[in-house]
Design brief:
By secondary structure, the protein is α+β, with helices and mostly antiparallel strands. The chain folds into 2 domains: 33 residues, no CATH class; 148 residues, Nucleic acid-binding proteins (OB fold (Dihydrolipoamide Acetyltransferase, E2P), Beta Barrel). It has 4 helices and 6 strands, in the order ααβββαβαββ. The protein has a 5-stranded mixed β-barrel. A hairpin with a 5-residue loop joins β2 and β3. About 13% of the residues have low confidence.
């Protein structure tokens, strides 16, 4: 009886510690042994994003349209990857998810949570692309409508944008996607 009670208390304490570690980002850092980026986006202001991104294929002005940016940690301000479109999903905040089965040289860009929840794909988030059904997202998109062309499933593509850790899902993404080029 006492052993069972002690085990229950130990499990409860362990859950509390893990939860606090998750909230602080320490759990994610421990899981992947990756330093969290110093670029946590908490204010939507394109002046905070490095200016040279457009020369590398990324549009820093898109950051002012990112919904709830406080949940995102920028790992690389601009990256391009290639692969095959595995799935496409429409979100209520007007964004379009483009899941890419990455080419072998980019496989290190997905983490454990991508492997579990996106079948190993890297999620690309094309912001403000579709009808917005979530009231809070309207303020971020405003009159902006993405001109990024969404490819069909099975297409071979090159996707460019900011490589981020989405803390709310614990997976890696390209968000916002600046461009998708058919190959």
């Amino acid at each position: 009886m006492w052993k069972s009670l002690a085990l229950i208390i130990l499990i409860f304490v362990l859950i509390q510690v893990l939860y606090k570690m998750f909230l602080s980002g320490m759990l994610l850092q421990a899981l992947w042994q990756l330093p969290l980026s110093p670029y946590k986006v908490i204010v939507i202001n394109s002046s905070q994003v490095p200016k040279d991104l457009s020369s590398r294929g990324c549009d820093p002005s898109l950051w002012k349209h990112v919904y709830d940016p406080g949940r995102l940690y920028i790992t690389l301000p601009c990256v391009s990857v290639t692969g095959v479109v595995d799935a496409i999903e429409t979100e209520v905040d007007g964004d379009r998810h483009v899941l890419i089965k990455l080419d072998p040289q980019y496989q290190n860009l997905v983490n454990t949570f991508n492997k579990i929840f996106t079948h190993g794909d890297l999620l690309g988030e094309v912001i403000c692309h579709d009808k917005i059904d979530e009231k809070e997202a309207l303020d971020y998109c405003g009159d902006y409508i993405s001109e990024v062309k969404i490819p069909v499933v099975g297409s071979r593509v090159k996707m460019s944008g900011s490589y981020i850790l989405d803390i709310s899902h614990a997976w890696m993404e390209i968000h916002p996607v600046s461009s998708i080029e058919m190959l």
